[in-house]
């Protein structure tokens, strides 16, 4: 009489599952290779090459060669995600624009003009520190032009109903030489 050792359930489970998992993995690889083949055949036909039958190794080789060609032609660009600092700066800038927009509306007439000007100077200083030396010139250029308008409007108590959209970086750079640097300037994002 032979004595058989009991087989553990874990061992039985692995014995059954391993081949099944391997089949699923191979199926995934083959499905992706088929999709890659379709994409490569389309791309190569667009470039004038005729490809009839491709093996798996050919598909991978052609894909690598095609990606090298795109990278050499500078058509393959991978854009990195914005860093946390970039996202923070963008959010802070948007918030400063919202504050500036609010302060230029008739609803903000209850805000003391000096307090509004001080707030905008503070936000402008923070933005200059966030943007560095290049951004400081652009922020200062727009600050002096809009500070004059804001100060005059708040002193005459005429409500500003017109919203001025933000300037493009090109127009800000071109107007940076026109404005004089002033420590009392109120920074505006437009």
TrEMBL record:
SMART domains: HLH (SM00353), ORANGE (SM00511). Residues 13-70 form the BHLH domain. GO terms for molecular function: DNA binding; protein dimerization activity. It comes from the Eukaryota. GO terms for cellular component: nucleus. GO terms for biological process: regulation of DNA-templated transcription. Gene3D superfamilies: Helix-loop-helix DNA-binding domain. Residues 88-123 form the Orange domain. Keywords: DNA-binding, Nucleus, Transcription, Transcription regulation. This is Enhancer of split mgamma protein. It comes from Camponotus floridanus.
């Amino acid at each position: 009489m032979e004595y058989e050792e009991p087989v553990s359930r874990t061992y039985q489970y692995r014995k059954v599952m391993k081949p099944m998992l391997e089949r699923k993995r191979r199926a995934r690889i083959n499905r992706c290779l088929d999709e890659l083949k379709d994409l490569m055949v389309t791309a190569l036909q667009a470039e004038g090459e005729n490809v009839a039958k491709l093996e798996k190794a050919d598909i991978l080789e052609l894909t690598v060669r095609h990606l090298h060609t795109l990278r050499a032609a500078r058509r393959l660009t991978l854009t990195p995600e914005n860093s946390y600092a970039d996202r923070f700066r963008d959010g802070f800038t948007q918030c400063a624009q919202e504050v500036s927009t609010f302060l230029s509306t008739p609803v903000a007439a209850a805000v003391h003009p000096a307090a509004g000007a001080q707030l905008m100077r503070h936000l402008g200083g923070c933005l200059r520190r966030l943007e560095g030396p290049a951004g400081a010139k652009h922020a200062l250029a727009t600050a002096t032009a809009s500070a004059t308008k804001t100060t005059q409007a708040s002193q005459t108590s005429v409500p500003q109903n017109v919203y001025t959209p933000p300037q493009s970086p090109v127009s800000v750079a071109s107007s940076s030489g026109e404005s004089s640097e002033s420590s009392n300037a109120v920074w505006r994002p437009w």
